[in-house]
Specification:
about 130 residues; Rossmann fold; hydrolase; HAD_sf; 3 helices; about 25% helix; globular; Hydrolase; hydrolase activity; alpha/beta; single chain; Phage_SP01_Orf1; 4-stranded parallel beta sheet
Length: about 130
């Protein structure tokens, strides 16, 4: 596994519950996992169907929740849209609710991309005869 990746993330149905054109409620652990990915050096690209004011609202909602993307609907911030080229984003990983099999939980995504214990899960400890001594 490489050290860092460009990760394209959908908004509706992935970061928030799908309520398009409104903004749905945040999906549990989505923002926490995405911020942790950024802390690890990964570049996050918001890759969404939204445009115009609904896109601006989504970007602002993410900012209010502590998440600023490397780029929005483009592969890098300086990229100029040219209709003669594909709009496909150049990313190593895509996180989208439209994946075959659906969206994994953000706990599973955290564990797969960051490793360690998924967010929100407590370590189970064995209870033995002398556990009261701990």
């Amino acid at each position: 596994m490489r050290d860092t990746y460009n990760i394209a993330v959908d908004f509706d149905g992935t970061i928030v519950e799908d309520a398009y054109p409104r903004i749905g409620k945040p999906i549990i652990f989505a923002f926490e996992t995405l911020k942790k990915l950024q802390e690890k050096g990964h570049r996050l690209i918001l890759w969404t169907y939204r445009k115009g004011s609904s896109l601006e609202e989504a970007v602002e909602f993410c900012k209010q929740n502590g998440l600023v993307f490397y780029a929005v609907n483009r592969s890098f911030p300086e990229e100029e849209f040219d209709s003669s080229y594909s709009r496909k984003i150049h990313a190593d990983i895509f996180i989208d609710d439209r994946n075959i099999g659906g969206l994994k939980s953000w706990g599973e995504i955290y564990q797969q991309l960051i490793g360690g214990q998924p967010l929100g899960e407590k370590t189970k400890s064995k209870k033995g005869w002398f556990s009261f001594l701990k």
